Amino acid sequence: VQLQASGGGLVQTGDSLRLSCAASGRTFSNSAMGWFRQAPGKEREFVSTITGSGGGTRYADFGKGRFIISRDNAKNTLYLQMNSLKPEDTAVYYCAARDSPLTTLTMSTYNYWGQGTLVTVSS
Predict the structure, then answer these.
(1) pLDDT digits (tens, 9 = 90+) for 13-56
(2) Which of 24, 56, 75, 77 is most buried, by the most CB atoms less than 10 A from its CB?
(3) Contact present, 58 and 103 (Cβ < 8 Å)
(4) Secondary structure string (H, E, C) spanning 28-78
(5) Nearest-5° angle of CA 51, CA 56, CA 58?
């Protein structure tokens, strides 16, 4: 499975940004997908996850009410809409896929990872 994340960039506090993750090499709808992030000097952390069908989603507390995860199985693409961005959202964002349509919050349960896309939020 190959995952290609894109959409990162430099934005200002309060701005919005949509990340995309293009997947190939596996039936996309059979894979739960997740977004994780790693800020400078910090460990990678869970952001959000979505079931293979797209019917179930989960968010880290910092993302609830601001981030929206979605997927288009016809396009083999995962999205993360990020609104009301804050400087503390600055990080490299990674998409990941599981060999299961069910979600988890645990990084070690994700089998495939993209290369990451950098999001920088200026104050």
Answers:
(1) 999 999 999 999 888 999 999 999 999 999 999 999 999 999 99
(2) 77
(3) yes
(4) HHHCCEEEEEECCCCCCEEEEEECCCCCCEEECHHHCCCEEEEEECCCCEE
(5) 95
Q: Rounded CA gap, 91 and 119, in Å? A: 6
CB 32 within 8 A of CB 103: yes
Residue 65 vs residues 5, 18, 41, 58: alpha-carbon distances, Å: 23, 15, 26, 11
The gap between the terminal CA atoms of the chain, to the nearest Å, is 37
Beta-strand relationship, 117-122 and 9-12: parallel
> Quick check: 51 and 70 in contact, CB under 8 A?
no
- The whole-angstrom separation of Cα 100 and Cα 29 is 9
| The residue type at 71 | R
Q: How confident is the model at residue 1 (pLDDT cuts 50, 70, 90)?
A: confident
